[in-house]
């Protein structure tokens, strides 16, 4: 038997990919640069750093008037109805005339978001509270009222909203009210603010969606539950839901202040943390 030599046994290897990734990296960087650049029109309008829009043919029309009209339209008819054409009709001007003031709907929405952000300070000013607990209450009630007054805000992804002067103003006044929470780090103070805002927005969403469901179905609160009563009564009598079956009749009373209860528990939790920090824990 002939022995196979080492030279007869050759291994095949995959060809090395020598594709230069430099071009790909450069392309991604260019895309990122373009996307960041896309924010500039809104930022320049928010901060007044760019060229001010030229006035259109309609006397008295301004960027501020355009944004105010857009907010009013969204309040009354919803965000889905808002368009440059619809807004132009509301203002009694041509669609193309609006583009003298704002480049498009994306930038308009950025301006609308900032326009309403500091409204809560008019009635619930965190900086005017006598202590941080009062500031937390002001932030919560202000955010709740803001989203109930402008329910279209709940349709907008605000997780990365552009920061304009009014947005920073309400944040500044909120931090001024929370400064009494001694012992908390800056990230923790911001987390307090975010927790209160999220709680208020969640409550507002529940209220708005309940209202919308009633309008869409034509069923009020009482009629909604009355329609389910026969089915729920049989379910409770089945023994499959013993804990639910023992709940009192007023458990789901709409008069119960869920918002006030939840807010008080948030304050209790924050107070425990502040006390722990004061005690060196």
From TrEMBL:
<dbReference type="InterPro" id="IPR050109">
    <property type="entry name" value="HTH-type_TetR-like_transc_reg"/>
</dbReference>
<dbReference type="GO" id="GO:0003700">
    <property type="term" value="F:DNA-binding transcription factor activity"/>
</dbReference>
<dbReference type="InterPro" id="IPR004111">
    <property type="entry name" value="Repressor_TetR_C"/>
</dbReference>
<protein>
    <submittedName>
        <fullName>TetR family transcriptional regulator</fullName>
    </submittedName>
</protein>
<keyword id="KW-0805">Transcription regulation</keyword>
<dbReference type="InterPro" id="IPR036271">
    <property type="entry name" value="Tet_transcr_reg_TetR-rel_C_sf"/>
</dbReference>
<keyword id="KW-0238">DNA-binding</keyword>
<keyword id="KW-0804">Transcription</keyword>
<feature type="region of interest" description="Disordered">
    <location>
        <begin position="1"/>
        <end position="24"/>
    </location>
</feature>
<dbReference type="GO" id="GO:0045892">
    <property type="term" value="P:negative regulation of DNA-templated transcription"/>
</dbReference>
<feature type="DNA-binding region" description="H-T-H motif">
    <location>
        <begin position="83"/>
        <end position="102"/>
    </location>
</feature>
<feature type="compositionally biased region" description="Basic and acidic residues">
    <location>
        <begin position="1"/>
        <end position="12"/>
    </location>
</feature>
<dbReference type="InterPro" id="IPR001647">
    <property type="entry name" value="HTH_TetR"/>
</dbReference>
<dbReference type="InterPro" id="IPR009057">
    <property type="entry name" value="Homeodomain-like_sf"/>
</dbReference>
<feature type="domain" description="HTH tetR-type">
    <location>
        <begin position="60"/>
        <end position="120"/>
    </location>
</feature>
<dbReference type="Pfam" id="PF00440">
    <property type="entry name" value="TetR_N"/>
</dbReference>
<dbReference type="Pfam" id="PF02909">
    <property type="entry name" value="TetR_C_1"/>
</dbReference>
<feature type="compositionally biased region" description="Low complexity">
    <location>
        <begin position="13"/>
        <end position="24"/>
    </location>
</feature>
<dbReference type="GO" id="GO:0000976">
    <property type="term" value="F:transcription cis-regulatory region binding"/>
</dbReference>
